Structures are given as C-alpha cells and as structure tokens.
Amino acid sequence: MLIAASYSVADSLNAYRQTLSHFLLFYWIWAALTFPILILVRRLHRTPVPMWRIVPAHILAAFVTAALQVVCYVPLQLWRQGTWGTDPFSDALVNGLRRHVPGNLLLYAVIVAAWLVDDYRMRTRAALDRAKLDALRTQLRPHFLFNTLQVASSLMHTDVNAAENVLEQLGDFLRLVLRQNDREFVPLSEELMLLDKYVDIMKARFRDRLTVHLDVAPSTISVDVPVLLLQPLVENAITHGVGERASGGNVWVRVESIENALRIRIDDDGCGVPDGAAEGIGLSNTRTRLQTLYPAAPRLTVARRAGGGTSVTIELPRAGSQNEAEGVPQGFISARTKSA
User: Fold this and answer.
1) Segment 258-262 long-range contacts (CB within 8 Å, at least 24 positions apart)
2) Partners of 185 in the beta sheet?
3) CA–CA separation, 4 vs 14, rounded Å?
4) Fewest beta carbons less than 10 Å away: which of 10, 199, 325, 335?
C-alpha cells in the first residue's frame, strides 16, 4: 500500500486503487512462488551438495523464477485492465520481462538470503544447546565416578570382595554409557539398566541400610527419556536423603503414564529438604537439561514428602511406542524391591 501510495500521491483515488491492485497482483504471484523456492533452497543446503553445483542451480532457478513470475503476471494484468485480446501479448510480455526480471532476480536473492540467515540462526542455537547439554553430561559423569571410587576406596581395607564388585559394576555402567553413542534420548528400558548398575554399587556401600523400590508401568518401558535422567536423581535421594541417617531408609522410583505425558517420581524417607538449601550438581544439572530439552514449561518439581523425606517429580511429553520392551529384565516391570 505504501508503494502504491508513493506512485499515486498526486493522483486521484481511482488511480490509487489501480496502482494498489497492480502491486497486489504482482506480489501475490511472488507469494505463490515463494514456497517452491524455499523447498528448493532447503534441499540444496540441507543435503551434501558441492558448492560448484549449488551456485549454478541458484542462478538457473533465479532466472526461471523471475521469468515465470512475469509470464504469470502479464496475462492477468492485461485481463485486469480489460485489454486482453486488444494489446499484442508478445509485446506486453517482452516489455514485462525487460521491466521486471532484474527486480525479480533481486527478490529471489532476498528470499534465499532470508532463509539462509534464519537457518544459520537455528543451527547456531541448536549447536549451542547441544554443547550445553554435552557440558552438563560431562559434568555428571566425573561426579558419579568420583563418588563411586570413594565407595570402592572405603571398602578396600574392610571388604576386598565388595570393593572388587563395586569396580566390576562401575565397568558395566561405563560400558552401557559408552554404548549409548552420545544419544540424547534412550528408551526407558536402557535408563533402568543404568539405574540397576548404580543400585548394585550402592548395595556394597549401604548393605541392609537402604531399600530401593521400583514401580514401573509396563507401557512405559519403551518410551524415550533423556539419557542419565534417573541415576543422578536416585543418587541425590540416597546420598542426601537416606545416606545421612544412621538407620538408613527407602527410595521409591515410580514411572507411570498420565494422558500424553510420562510421570517419574522419586521419593525418599530421609531428612527432607532444608529450607533455602541450594540444589546439588545432580538436581541442578537435571533441571537445566530438562529446561533445554523441553523449553515449553518447567518439568521438574521438588517438594517435601508427606511423612518425611523428599519427593522429586518429573513430567515429560510422551514419545515412543507403548509396546512392552523386549529383553528388559522382568524385575523392572511392575513392582520391584531391591535391598542395598
């Protein structure tokens, strides 16, 4: 409208309407051509095509699009003006090509440049998010290794067999982690296998002072969850909840489906969360990872548990099939209690 007004500022209202309809028709055709241009650009720049093929492809596509826009525009403009059949079509087409092709080539370049800028922004944001998640995972692993080696060291002079068992379980745990091949999501069944190895390690440390209860709905076994989601939260419950009590205690891990979400709840009957206490590495890193992976809303809540202790609840958008997992230890399905 502003372009039309600049052309008709001194003309009558009728001339303004004529000019406006001309520009609307011209750019409606461009709007229709924008979609195939974006599809072409996406295919050229999202597939491994060498640059010496991309540039000629853009040049050819630019001239074809510029000419096609004029070929569509000229007859519609003649029909709109009521001169179709009276003005020579060939002359109008040649004049249209000469007048509009240079500007059309510029418009094609603007569309491609806008897509490339937006694609670069999205790729940069994805790379930063990935780097952030990798940093958090890298921070979690040394934290877990340090705590596990402390357990083995404390047992070395009192129970050599238990210390050897801890190191064996640690080796199994690390093999499972390496097998994940840097995936960000894994089926819940694999996450439960990692948790099983961790609980076996804690068995050597706490012996009869700790009991871990698993209650996992069979329909959730194959659902994808962020890798290393459960272990740091269970470690937090054991270390800061049950571990600080001489009498020991219990940790409950419950997984269930609620509508289109997956609810994971980890409870302990330990000392509870002190008011104003700062979150540890495991809890704070898990919260940050979830906020990065699921930015729509916070997904993790921490509260005092009725009857004493702490309750951590996570709700994730459900993904993956609902088929029961194959090859998963049956102890993970339905209720399971593991004493440590």
Assistant:
1) 258/315, 260/317, 260/318, 261/315, 261/316, 261/317, 261/318, 262/188, 262/220, 262/223, 262/225, 262/315, 262/316, 262/317, 262/318
2) 226
3) 12
4) 10
Task: Name 211's bridge partners.
Answer: 250, 339
CA atoms within 13 A on the CB side of 120: 6
Among left, alpha and beta (phi > 0; psi -120 to 50; other), residue 302 is beta
Place of tokens 């699009």: 65
pLDDT in tens, 98-149: 888 888 889 899 989 988 888 878 777 766 566 555 554 554 556 667 777 7
Q: Which domains, from first to last, does the chain contain? A: 2-124 (no CATH), 156-339 (3.30.565.10)
The dihedral through the CA atoms of 275, 299, 264, 198 has a sign that is negative
